[in-house]
Amino acid sequence: MNPQPPRTIHLIAPSGYCHNQPAAALGIQRLQQAGHQVNNQHAVSRRFQRFAGSDAERLQDINALARLSPLPDIILAVRGGYGVTRLLEQVDYNGLRQALSAQPVALCGHSDLTALQLALLAKSELITFSGPMLSGNFGAPELSDFTWRHFWQAITSPVFKLAWQTGTPALPLLEGTLWGGNLAMIMTLAGTPWLPQIADGILVIEDINEHPFRVERMLLQLHQCGVLARQRAIIVGSFSGFNATDYDNGFSFATVWQHIREVTGLPIVDGLDFGHEQKTVTLPLGARGALSVAHGQASLRISGHPVLRQGEAPSTI
């Protein structure tokens, strides 16, 4: 793991109960051993029904960020699951805009947190990071060095580039707003005030436990409600956790990507390590992206996102 200056990390648990408590404890231990201060640890063990606490407790995790002084360097989700969409109407978007715009803060997570991240982009104009979480990533049995390096790269580098192998044909340089995250959560926000109206966007998608026909149905809904018409390209991350059957008769994700290309005319660039797998990049949602493909290799240059200041001792909360 590459060394980093000590940072303050504030945990939030706005979604599902962390059923793997040992993994969360291991994630905290690893972060502390790397020199970082981990606060709000009580959120890890909270539980109400299937959630990480009552709606009021989980909402407090979010809205309290507007009143923290000093602010942490990193706000890290414990895990995903379900629960954020229950809270969106009561989030203090104005308070969060004022507080989190005052200094660089990296709010990071994925899965269910996508709903909050996109709502913050839409209502507060805040750029957050789709990337690792405490339990599933930092608390994994084997911590991915790839994930660790890409996380710190994204939140500390004003400009960085990702490169990966893809089956997509050559694509000239396309520039636009990088946004997206978990596809099911993006689709859930369609038609609500919390889906950002991104024009000239580079939409990045990922999901887990979704059959290809469900993924196609979600993408068609985004197409039919006009979201995809405003995009310049789609980048495909990880889609896993489904079982094909004889009934599919060859219907696959490759089928889905081809059909969406034909329906929308959009280039779809596959192969990015992004999503629910242990190996994942970290992407700032709302940043500037420049995408191209040549000779089977995709390149994405990212800029315009908040970055942590270098070499500072951690603040205390």
Automatic annotation (TrEMBL):
<dbReference type="GO" id="GO:0008236">
    <property type="term" value="F:serine-type peptidase activity"/>
</dbReference>
<dbReference type="InterPro" id="IPR027461">
    <property type="entry name" value="Carboxypeptidase_A_C_sf"/>
</dbReference>
<dbReference type="InterPro" id="IPR029062">
    <property type="entry name" value="Class_I_gatase-like"/>
</dbReference>
<dbReference type="Pfam" id="PF02016">
    <property type="entry name" value="Peptidase_S66"/>
</dbReference>
<dbReference type="InterPro" id="IPR027478">
    <property type="entry name" value="LdcA_N"/>
</dbReference>
<comment type="similarity">
    <text>Belongs to the peptidase S66 family.</text>
</comment>
<protein>
    <submittedName>
        <fullName>Muramoyltetrapeptide carboxypeptidase</fullName>
        <ecNumber>3.4.17.13</ecNumber>
    </submittedName>
</protein>
<dbReference type="GO" id="GO:0106415">
    <property type="term" value="F:muramoyltetrapeptide carboxypeptidase activity"/>
</dbReference>
<feature type="active site" description="Charge relay system">
    <location>
        <position position="276"/>
    </location>
</feature>
<dbReference type="GO" id="GO:0006508">
    <property type="term" value="P:proteolysis"/>
</dbReference>
<keyword id="KW-0720">Serine protease</keyword>
<feature type="active site" description="Nucleophile">
    <location>
        <position position="111"/>
    </location>
</feature>
<keyword id="KW-0378">Hydrolase</keyword>
<dbReference type="InterPro" id="IPR040921">
    <property type="entry name" value="Peptidase_S66C"/>
</dbReference>
<feature type="active site" description="Charge relay system">
    <location>
        <position position="206"/>
    </location>
</feature>
<dbReference type="InterPro" id="IPR003507">
    <property type="entry name" value="S66_fam"/>
</dbReference>
<keyword id="KW-0121">Carboxypeptidase</keyword>
<dbReference type="Pfam" id="PF17676">
    <property type="entry name" value="Peptidase_S66C"/>
</dbReference>
<feature type="domain" description="LD-carboxypeptidase N-terminal">
    <location>
        <begin position="9"/>
        <end position="131"/>
    </location>
</feature>
<keyword id="KW-0645">Protease</keyword>
<feature type="domain" description="LD-carboxypeptidase C-terminal">
    <location>
        <begin position="175"/>
        <end position="289"/>
    </location>
</feature>
<dbReference type="InterPro" id="IPR040449">
    <property type="entry name" value="Peptidase_S66_N"/>
</dbReference>
